[in-house]
Amino acid sequence: MGFREDGKGTEFTRRDVLKAGAAVAAFGAGLAGAGLGHVGTAVAQQQDMHFEPEKGAELRILRWKKFVQGDEDGWNANTQKFTEKTGVKVRIDAESWEDIRPKAAVAANVGSGPDIIFGWFDDPHQYPDKLVDLTDLATYLGNKYGGWYEAPKRYGMRDGKWIGLPVGAAGNCIVYRKSWLNEAGFETMPRDTDGFLKACQAMAKKGHPAGFALGNAVGDGNTWTHSILWAFGGRMVDDQNNVVINSPETVRALEYVAELYKTFAPGTLSWLDPNNNKAFLAGEIGVTANGISVYYSAKSSQDPAMQAMAKDIEHANMPVGPVGRPTELHLFTQAMVFRHSKYPNAAKEYLRFMMEKDQYEPWQQAAIGYITHPLAAYESNPIWTVDPKHTPYRDTVKNMLWNGYSGKLGPASAAAMADYVVVNMFAEAASGQQTPKEAAARAERRAARYYKV
């Protein structure tokens, strides 16, 4: 039967919850049967924190639409556990990835709407005065679960306070068909940008083009273009938030992608987040950058052809460029509790409950690692090693840089990303609409509107 969705959000029946809970439990039992049960590194012992929900509390939550069914099933099952434990009713509305940011901005501006919104990247820094201080909750979770990674801390904190609660990221890796790569003369996917370009060129010559989103895709467009920009030493701003995107390093990155674009399938200039998934699963492309959702879809399909494809899918971390170290950006989400909420304690208790190990690890397992953790203790979740194809996603958040690198997060960094300054720059240079130098200069002018001195 599954979970029902209508205009009033996700509603639960007892049978739905039992079904989803059973699925999550079965997955965990499978891990245990493989000798990878719910053990891991011991979590620091400390007094558990609880927030007492307000009398009669009800919560409305805005969250992204699923790409992985297990993500939604696991999250909804945990939500029902929370309701059964606390009596707090929870309504979950799901929106497309591109619609989350404008809806959150409207809620902040008008002072009404969902109690909790799961937004992207540094969205909380656009309206910090509209958000509930989550410092006590974030401090508790960090102390209990091995500490927060660096980029999540930057995303969640402003002026020493936590204005958002990091939840994790849909890690972005290179997804490719191994047999097609082998056919092109490569045993494994090269780990450097030069080698990666050569592999894509060779695969394209064999009729297996690449495909990377160059439309205004919140996840796939932003993540790979920022990763390549940084790989060549380009940056939007320097440490003091001076706009430096119009640089020789940026031009080199744009020239690189202009060559890479020649290996792309048609239409990538308008691709949003679902497009590369569909193209890969349809056999139209042989390599892309994506979360584990492509592999999940093929592996969980009842179609024998899809199951065969799953065996041929491999993952690799984003290639390292001339700077000589990982320079990855991933689709990061964090929870924002809005001050207009009548039930801030209930909201904080909900987030605490969902981030505790008893809920968080089974949720990751149900989605086969679709969301990578921001807390170090969850590195030991057996989901990362039960299947070697999951492992490249394990350290994506640990190795992640932040939007607006290497400057400080704030309204400017959030607004520049919301305006797709970097993505559009790469699209213009790749397609030949602008030369690399012209595209970098235009990006500089656009960025300067937000990073005002």
Automatic annotation (TrEMBL):
<keyword id="KW-0762">Sugar transport</keyword>
<comment type="similarity">
    <text>Belongs to the bacterial solute-binding protein 1 family.</text>
</comment>
<dbReference type="Pfam" id="PF13416">
    <property type="entry name" value="SBP_bac_8"/>
</dbReference>
<dbReference type="InterPro" id="IPR006311">
    <property type="entry name" value="TAT_signal"/>
</dbReference>
<protein>
    <submittedName>
        <fullName>Multiple sugar transport system substrate-binding protein</fullName>
    </submittedName>
</protein>
<keyword id="KW-0732">Signal</keyword>
<dbReference type="InterPro" id="IPR006059">
    <property type="entry name" value="SBP"/>
</dbReference>
<dbReference type="InterPro" id="IPR050490">
    <property type="entry name" value="Bact_solute-bd_prot1"/>
</dbReference>
<keyword id="KW-0813">Transport</keyword>
